[in-house]
Design goal:
The complex is a heterotrimer of chains A (296), B (260) and C (435). With 296 residues, chain A is α/β, with parallel strands linked by helices. Chain A has 8 helices and 15 strands. Classes of the chains: A alpha/beta (296), B alpha/beta (260), C alpha+beta (435). β15 of chain A pairs parallel with β13 of chain B, so a sheet runs across the interface. Bound molecules: flavin-adenine dinucleotide (2 copies) and adenosine monophosphate.
Chain lengths: 296, 260, 435
């Protein structure tokens, strides 16, 4: 199995290390300024390919000839999702997108936004993308790494959009990843004002406030507070989830908390299944009560 | 011509069926692009006859034409894209959702761009149209954003939050019922092109972590938990809000998060 | 008269609206059926038993296709005190065979099916569309409806208001007098999941056979009634509570349902079930007492919108009245359109039609039922009287010889402070009403 990791300005995408681990260390790091140092604590035999500025059609064309394994795995990060179909098509292989597990003889796919799983037997060569955060990876202090630099062949005739710029996340407010306690709110909370309340309660519990993508998309909370595969990956000891269903893209960014509390009206949603203390109640009313208590 | 791709997902009968929020947003973006470049929107779907429900909804909202490419449910994403490419070859913009309501991998738009040999801008959270170009904002990981300039012809895929589909007028809703829908023969269903429907409930993957360095006995202790420590427990309670708040604070105190 | 968009606009695709639209479409009239929910029945809740025999004429053999859960072959009435119960049980084999009697069904299934029939017959059904106003002719006659969609005015010669309890359309047309909260009850229902085999065994039924249990008493001091119905693999458990009493007692409906579910006579039936759904709805309970004017110039009112519903503790019917009045409204409109007179006078046949069917006859007969069934005596004292009496009869406290029934009743009546005169009078009202 070969991991193919798209690199931008030296940055490894979400799920990059997991994908390399899934492929037992065989990896091709390709893109702008790929470097082995970006993978601290991960063992592997890395092939580095410089491709210049991001351009999915051109990158796919350059990478296809470098594939030397029947199983190619990319992380299901934005760039991985961009590249994988093109690569699969150039290689004439089927694509298995959004996998939780990839083996040479079978893949397990996450479907319906994390509600279901599908097992598919694999015969022959494939391309797959691995859902970030579902596997986890060990950081080894004495990781062994080899790195060789390769050249990509010239490509012609590809068409791509022009990258104008890449905006960095706003670092000033990016404290969530370091936080040991997080109080998270989801679509079960019914108004923007709830998140001001949530922040008050969080502060008094010594916690940071987080949210799901539904909430950040509504603009109720700034994007930097979004927990999950396309937001911030966190690893608190305590996670309190108010009105959060626990979609895989959210929980994949949650790390492994020692304690999870979930308040939800639906006792069967994934977040309630994960919780140490699962409370079936209206999250809005519970938030009112918590606020009254921490204030009083 | 602008082509908007809609995937109609059936669960039981039409009551529980529909398209994803992203597909709805795609139609709104398509209609706005059509307004700036004075052209019209054709909505296309690959699927069984029930999918025509969705096409009529799109016509009511403003699509000028509708095409249904006959195909069974569960066709693989690459085969769907090949079928769509056949009707989208002359389009200036092809606008898709970022995720369908069932498969939700966002692979079809990328396959479609590859098939047509045009540029792609996928997973967009902002689309600002100009006449022949679009300035698009794309979501990257870790809170980063990418700004792209895209020129026709190209495939765009948008997230559901980009735009809210306009409400169809009552009269459009009524005339859409008898609007003509072009039917096109699609690919034959072959085993290689079908994705299994045998969906099991989600459960997390077991995480394997290597043994930590150190004495083997420590590892055994850790695994068997002989040293004590909080036993794994899970509790489900139904409580009214005041009791719920008390219970949560009590749990936090018990776990040592609150100073007494 | 100028051309209108439709002959008739029907507001609300519940049972009343669907039947009205079907009748009109079959008569070759153009009819638009407007529904606020994403599909017919999507938001409609009720206890759970329908009596569809009224459809025999409109949809012969309806039982072959209606989406029902179970056929009611057992009907029980239960009187509850805190820890006693007396059940009168009736079982009929013929209720389990065509043409059947009652059935449990889910409204999102039943209403969707019924509205689908109207569509099939040629009615235009448009969902996700709310009527927000009435269009008027200069003389005040109703000329159509305004909806919440862009370009959403639709003209019609007749508007039929089937928009359910507390009808916005009927009020807008000025057909309702002042509305009094004491005429309303609150219905609250839980759907509890249990495996089919467990339900079959606990309720002693097989296949598609089902049970309808109506309960008097046990509603924790709040006047009302309760019900327990079997669906295929769920139970519907609910209470119907008088609004003023509920407010006065400051009790939450869910606490009252929990009380019913914990009663020793009910607990073994519902035990271990998992609550899947919880819903609440207001019901016009007071029958004849609160009916609006049912016709105006260019407008008819049917179903719950006309308060044609019976909710009197053990009596929970409305869907059948809605279907019957919908059919009558449809037929009346067909007649009025043919005679080219859709004024109030032209539509006067509606009231006559209702009088001649069971709809108004039942309401007239049961006129005093809500008051009686929901009165304090029936609610709180009679269940005690009856159950204590029966307990005394069945109690084995040898060697004292068993007292006669008369003595037991008298003793219990006195103990509970019920005056003999009241008992007799209520008995008489009950006899006239239900007998
Ligand atoms: C490629 C991709 C990447 C994604 N990345 C992320 C990501 O990084 N982070 C992220 O969070 N999401 C991400 N998502 C979105 C994710 O799939 C889910 O849609 C999202 O996490 C759901 O958020 P939610 O739990 O707030 O909302 P919902 O799923 O709508 O859940 C709301 C919950 O609240 C409960 N509820 C409702 N009312 C109440 C009440 N009164 N009291 C208590 N509970 C109530 C409901 O039962 C439900 O469980 C991504 C999706 C895709 C396709
Ligand atoms: C708790 C409870 C238990 C009951 N149990 C039973 C029972 O067991 N058996 C029985 O036969 N009856 C029962 N009933 C009564 C029964 O539900 C009603 O009598 C029946 O639904 C009336 O039908 P309808 O068509 O008049 O109105 P509804 O079923 O209320 O339909 C009205 C329709 O109009 C739509 N609507 C409303 N306003 C607008 C608008 N402005 N624009 C567009 N559409 C609109 C609504 O969405 C709805 O679909 C019960 C009622 C309750 C509340
Ligand atoms: N069968 C289909 N017919 C038309 N468009 C589709 C179909 N499947 C996917 N699409 C489009 O591709 C997008 C992404 O779908 P998916 O790759 O399945 O997540 C959808 O939002 C649609 O715009």
């Amino acid at each position: 199995m070969l991991a193919m990791i798209p690199i931008r300005d030296g940055v490894v995408p979400a799920g990059g290390a997991e994908t390399i681990a899934e492929c037992a260390g065989r990896a091709l790091l390709a893109g702008s300024s790929p470097q082995a140092d970006a993978l601290d604590g991960i063992s592997g035999d890395l092939r580095l390919v410089e491709l210049g500025e991001y351009a999915p059609a051109r990158w796919a064309a350059a990478l296809a000839p470098l594939v030397d394994d029947p199983v190619v795995v990319l992380p299901a990060s934005p760039d991985g999702r961009d590249l994988a179909p093109r690569l699969a098509r150039l290689l004439g292989r089927p694509l298995f997108a959004g996998a939780m597990l990839v083996r040479p003889d079978a893949v397990r796919l996450v479907r319906g936004g994390g509600r279901g799983l599908v097992d598919v037997p694999v015969t022959g060569a494939i391309v797959a993308t691995l859902q970030p955060g579902v596997r986890g990876v060990d950081v080894e202090p004495d990781a062994r790494r080899t790195a060789t630099v390769e050249e990509a062949a010239d490509t012609t005739g590809t068409v791509d959009a022009t990258v104008v710029e890449v905006l960095p996340p706003d670092v000033a407010t990016m404290d969530l990843a370091e936080s040991a306690r997080i109080l998270g709110g989801g679509a079960g909370l019914d108004a923007a004002d709830r998140f001001r309340q949530l922040a008050v309660v969080a502060r008094s519990l010594g916690a940071s406030m987080g949210a799901t993508r539904v909430i950040t998309d509504r603009g109720w909370v700034e994007h930097q507070r979004q927990i999950g595969t396309t937001g911030v990956v966190v690893d608190p000891a305590l996670y309190i989830a108010l009105g959060i269903s626990g979609a895989v893209q959210h929980t994949a960014g949650l790390g492994t908390p020692d304690h999870i509390v979930s308040v939800n009206t639906d006792p069967h949603c994934p977040m309630m299944q994960m919780a140490d203390l699962a409370v079936v109640a209206d999250a809005n009313a519970v938030l009112d009560e918590l606020e009254a208590r921490v204030r009083g | 011509m602008i082509v908007v791709c809609w995937k109609w997902v059936t669960a039981g009968d039409e009551r529980w069926s529909g398209v994803s929020d992203a597909d709805r947003a795609a139609l709104e973006v398509g209609l706005r692009l059509a307004e700036t470049s004075s052209t019209s929107v054709t909505v296309a779907t690959v699927g069984p006859p029930a999918a025509e429900h969705g096409l009529r909804e799109a016509i009511a909202a403003g699509a000028a034409d509708a095409i249904r490419i006959e195909a069974p449910d569960g066709l693989a994403s690459d085969a769907v894209a090949v079928a769509l490419a056949a009707v989208a070859a002359d389009a200036s913009w092809i606008v898709c959702g970022d995720a369908s309501a069932d498969r939700g991998t966002g692979a079809v738009p990328a396959f479609l761009a590859a098939e047509l040999g045009v540029a792609q801008a996928l997973g967009l959270i902002g689309v600002t149209p100009d006449e022949r170009t679009v300035r698009a904002t794309r979501r990257l990981d870790g809170g980063r954003r990418e700004i792209l300039d895209v020129t026709t012809p190209a495939v765009l895929s948008v997230e559901g939050s980009v735009a809210r589909l306009r409400r169809a007028s009552l009269r459009a809703e009524l005339t859409a019922r008898s609007a003509a829908i072009l039917q096109v023969a699609g690919p034959p269903a072959t085993a290689a092109h079908a994705e299994s429907h045998d969906v099991q409930p989600y459960r997390p993957r077991a995480r394997a972590f290597a043994a930590p360095a150190g004495v083997a006995l420590d590892r055994v202790r850790l695994l068997t938990d002989v040293a004590g420590g909080p036993a794994p427990h899970a509790e489900l309670v139904v409580l009214d809000p005041p009791a719920a708040a008390e219970r949560i604070l009590a749990a936090l105190a018990e776990w040592g998060y609150l100073s007494p | 008269m100028a051309e209108t968009d439709y002959d008739v606009v029907v507001v609300g695709a519940g049972p009343a609206g669907a039947c009205a639209a079907t009748v009109l479409a079959r008569a070759g009239r153009s009819v638009l059926l407007l529904e606020r929910g994403p599909f017919a029945g999507s938001k409609n809740m009720y206890g759970g038993v329908v009596y569809p025999r009224i459809l025999d004429g409109l949809h012969p053999q309806w039982w072959e296709e209606a989406p029902i859960q179970r056929w009611v072959t057992r009907r029980s009435t239960m009187m509850l005190t805190d820890d006693q119960a007396l059940t009168v049980d009736y079982r009929s084999g013929s209720w389990g065979r065509p043409p059947y009697n009652g059935a449990t069904a889910f409204r999102p299934d039943f209403d969707h099916w019924l509205a689908g029939k109207a569509e099939h017959d040629g009615a235009d059904l448009v969902t996700s569309t709310t009527v927000v106003g009435l269009l008027r002719h200069p003389d005040g006659a109703v000329a159509g409806v305004r909806t919440d969609r862009p370009d959403g005015d639709i003209t019609a010669r007749v508007v039929i208001a089937c928009d359910g309890v507390n009808s916005f359309v009927a009020k807008e047309a000025g057909l309702y007098g002042a509305v009094d909260a004491s005429h309303f009850t609150l219905g609250v229902k839980e759907v509890v999941a249990l495996p089919k085999e467990v339900i079959d065994e606990r309720f002693n039924v097989r296949g598609r056979e089902g049970v309808d249990i109506e309960i008097v008493g046990g509603t924790g001091g709040v006047n009302g009634g309760a019900f327990l119905y079997t669906n295929l693999d769920t139970l519907s458990v609910g209470v119907v509570l008088k609004l003023p009493a509920l407010a006065a007692q400051q009790q939450r409906p869910e606490t009252i349902i929990a009380g019913i579910k914990a009663h020793p006579a009910i607990a073994p039936l519902v035990e271990g079930g998992e609550v899947k759904e919880y819903s609440a709805h207001v019901i016009p309970e007071a029958g004849m007492a609160m009916m609006p004017k049912m016709t105006g110039d260019g407008i008819l009112v049917a179903g719950d919108a006309a308060a044609l519903c019976l909710a009197a503790g053990i009596w929970l019917e409305g869907v059948n009245f809605a279907m019957a009045s919908g059919i009558a409204a449809g037929e009346t409109s067909v007649e009025a359109l043919r005679a080219d007179d859709t004024s109030e006078a032209g539509l006067a046949g509606y009231r006559r039609r209702l009088e001649s069917t069971f709809v108004l006859r039942d309401h007239r007969k049961l006129r005093r039922a809500p008051e009686l069934v929901l009165s304090d005596r029936v609610q709180h004292l009679y269940p005690k009287l009856v159950t204590n009496t029966v307990e005394a009869m069945f109690r084995v406290d040898n060697p004292t010889p068993k007292p006669g029934l008369r003595r037991i009743v008298t003793a219990e009546r006195k103990r509970l402070g019920i005056r003999r005169r009241d008992l007799l009078r209520d008995g008489l009202t009950g006899w006239r009403t239900f007998g």
